[in-house]
Amino acid sequence: MRNVWIIARREFRHYFVSPLAYAVAAMVFLIVGGIFFINIYFGLQTGQINPDGRMVMGPLVTILLFVTPAISMRLLADEQRMGTIELLLTAPVRDWELVVGKWLGAMGFMLLVLAVTWVYPLILHRITTPGIDQGILLSAYLGLVLLVGAMLALGTLISAVFNSPVVAFFVTLAVLLALWIIGGLGSGAGGGSELARYLSLVDHYYDNLYRGLVDVTDIVYYLSLTVLALFLGAQVVEARRWR
Amino acid sequence: MKRDWRPFASYGYLAGVIGLLAAGGWYVVGRQFDLYARIGVGLGVVGLAAGVLMDPDRVVRALRGRQARYGSNALVLSLATLGILSIVNYVAYSNPTRWDLTEDRAYSLSPETLLVLSGLTGPVEIKGFYSPDLSRSRDNLRPLLDQYRIESGGKVTYEFIDPLENPLAADRYGVTRTGSLVVIAGEASEVLEFATEAEITGALVRLANPEKRKVYFLTGHGERDIEDSRDSGYSRLRETLEAKNYEVATLNLLVEPSIPEDALVVIVAGPLEPLSSDEVGVLEGYMGDGGALVLLEEPNVPRAPDGKAEPLVQYLSEGWGVRLQDDVVVDLSSSLPFAGIAARYGQHEITARLRNMASYFPSARSLNVAPLESASVIQTSLVETGVNSWGETDIDALVEDSQIEYNEGEDHLGPLTLAAAVEDFETRSRLVVFGDSDFAANGDFFELANGDLLVNSIDWAARQEELISLTPKATTQRFVTPPSRRAIGLIFLITIVLLPGGVIVIGASVWWRRRKRV
Fold it and tell me: What gap in Å lies between CA B490 and CA B487, rounded to an integer?
């Protein structure tokens, strides 16, 4: 377990010296902040500001769809590209420790970004009487954490498959989009449609967690997806040993 | 000499894969496993088989090699993990547990509903008929229906059906409008126009206690025919009532001068002949015993020859304070001067749910509602016209001159009351009077709120709303105080300048320092 922490910390620190991470974070805050401010400003003109703490969370989810592949793309692909993967594989680090550690480091960075976005509901709370609905906010953020965890896990898996971070980025993006759209196939009534609806990445978020309903099914879904992706990632890393 | 087929094995595999993919694509597009799909699959299998046959060694090596051994191990482990996770997900999906974190507990069912659900004896199906343009309402409804499903332990199940795609199902349950729910318990079903907790639980209660809910339409005076499906008939009203699980029958007081015991509501729909005083006496007795009456009266044209007040008109005026005026409503707010347009609804359960939709009343007479001395009789004016209206009393002038003008002192100045509801709390009886019967005829039943108005009136008269009363849920009113100019400036500073800018500054400094070091 110690290995996991060491690798996680290293990756986490790496983000703070990586220009890409700063660019990504700045872009997220600029866009989300812009949306927030425009909502408040024009809400004033029309005299109606929606006292919903999730004001920015809809756009945020869409932005995260593009941001998480950027954050996860280099996790393992870089090592493979630079050739340092052999070093890691010969060290007394187990494959799953490597993968989980990388994922955890990326997760730490994204959690920090999400924590900073808390500023917006906070500001809204200060100007709302009697305050915004904090229960819904809690549920929505919990959902966001689960969603990001699953997306990063998928990104880590794909990063392990490819040697190029750029390829990993686009493939991750494609996979996430596929999981996003698959919900659309589930509008019918049959068993296949139900399965398609179940697999949808964002439906599990918007249907319940976003509304303030914490359903065990959704938690299980995201955790399963994360576990499966990390497990497969470990398999892929191990495959490198005998490729 | 035997030809060396081995290089061609790859083409075989390629052809096989293409064949299978093409067949798959064809199937997805055509949704049918038809001849072309079969050909594709056949070719695919043949291609793969050819590939194997042309270079069997390759296959053997692949299956036996190191990669295969480790690879198959990884594959088995992965499949096992996938299997375990699928089972875990399925278990969680079948036994949903959820916590409602909203401060208003918006998604939790009220204790009355939970009680009803715990008493359910058999499975209940809810079918929601939502067309694609109402997908938003449908998705908003899902959490509520999920709650019913979860809290009933799976006894209540639901599904959504597109009435445009599946009109037969809609017809089967008597669904006329998209956005309706049907609650089905065994053979009985009930259509709900409003998908709220109160309505659904109400339907569950009614279906669980299937006592006959019978309404009687009076006949014998040329009233509207509930079997008549022409524009002037009332068959649509009957169908709507039956879809709501009412039993509809006719009643002729001239033949049998007594109201049946099981009459929940008596409806008099546009009699062309006046009711006799005997009949009115029977109705009086019925009302005095806690009955309910819905009356739709057309303008008094042509007038009774001796000008004597009809017994029914007298009874309504003296017993209930509702006087049917001898006029014809003229309303200049629309291009049809003889149609009364509802400009305002009174505060009443009947009109509470009309979704702000107007209603119109072709050829109507106005009502004069005057409070009685008795304190136990409460009257409410349901429908009022706008200010551009009056009740024209000079009928002959209308017919002859076709010139309409307001005559002060003779005509009744608007706004006019076109419908009124009265409740006598002492006798527990309810009365709804309309100055028109055309508005709910088949031709106009589905226009605007016309049909709803009459159906709601019958529901109210039948005391539908008393079946279930839920503890009201408090919705916290949240109000955003508009921030001052300084506050806005501060918000701008934080969200647009400091946050992104701070990140950029830190990032730039880190980058610069690294450059310096290297």
Answer: 5
Cβ atoms of residues B66 and A242 within 8 Å: yes
Look at residue B165 in the predicted model and tell me its pLDDT: 81
Give the Cβ contact number of residue B137 at 10 Å: 13
d(CA B461, CA B458): 5
Give the angle subtended at the CA of B35 by the CAs of B34 and B36, to the nearest 5°. Answer: 95
Give me the total of CB pairs closer than 8 Å, taking one residue from chain A and one from chain B: 165
How many other β-carbons are positioned within 10 Å of the β-carbon of residue B49? 12
**How many of the other CB atoms lie within 10 Å of CB of B452?**
23
Helices B56-64 & B35-54, crossing angle to 10 degrees?
80
Structure tokens, B498: 């400091």
* Mean pLDDT taken over chain B: 84
Q: Stretch B117-137: mean pLDDT, rounded?
A: 85
Residue B126 has what pLDDT? 92
**Residue B362, CA distances (Å) to B148, B337, B410, B444 in order:** 43, 9, 22, 9
Say what the alpha-carbon torsion angle B176, B177, B181, B182 is, to the nearest 10 degrees. 0
Q: How confident is the model at residue B469, as a pLDDT?
A: 67
For residue B345, give the amino acid letter. Y
Q: Nearest to residue A135, comparing CAs of B141, B105, B476?
A: B105
Cβ-based contacts of A124 with chain B (< 8 Å)? 480
Query: Reduced to 3 DSSP states, what percent helix, strand and coil does chain A have, rounded to the nearest 5?
Result: 80, 0, 15
Residue window 86-125, chain B: list those with CB within 8 Å of chain A: 88-89, 92-93, 96-104, 106-107
The residue-averaged pLDDT of A206-222 equals 87
Best of A17, A30, A114, A201 to disrupt the B interface (most B CBs within 10 Å) is A30
CB B353 within 8 A of CB B425: no
Strand-strand pairing, B328-331 and B377-384: unpaired
Residue B212 burial (CB count, 10 A): 9
Q: Nearest CA to B345 among B335, B331, B355?
A: B355
B142 touches chain A (CB under 8 A): yes
Interval A189-210 mean pLDDT: 75
Amino acid (1-letter code) at residue A231 = F
Pick the residue of B130, B131, B480, B486 with the most A CBs within 10 A to test the interface with A by mutation: B480
> Taking CA atoms, what residue in A is nearest to B506?
A22
Question: Nearest CB to B98: which of A30, A34, A208?
Answer: A208
CA pair distance B5, B316, nearest whole angstrom:
102
- Compute the distance between CA of residue B501 and CA of residue B504 in angstroms, rounded to an integer: 5
Rounded CA gap, B143 and B133, in Å? 19
Bond before B415 cis per omega within 30 degrees: yes
Q: B479 and A51 in contact by Cβ < 8 A?
A: yes
Min Cα–Cα distance to chain A from B494, Å: 9
The DSSP element (H or E) to which B516 belongs, if any, is: helix B499-517
- Token pair for A190: 């049959």
User: Which residues are CB-neighbours of B124 under 8 A, at least 6 positions away?
Assistant: B152, B155, B156, B157, B183, B184, B185, B204, B207
pLDDT tens readout for residues B36-95: 778 888 888 888 888 887 777 777 777 777 667 777 778 888 888 999 999 998 888 877
Q: Which amino acid is at B428?
A: R
Task: Please calculate the CA angle B43-B46-B50 and round it to the nearest 5 degrees.
Answer: 135
Q: With 80 as the cut, is the pLDDT of residue B474 above it?
A: no
Residues of A in contact with B148 (CB under 8 A): none
Q: Which of A126, A224, A226, A237 has the highest number of chain B CBs within 10 A, making it the mutation to test binding with B?
A: A224
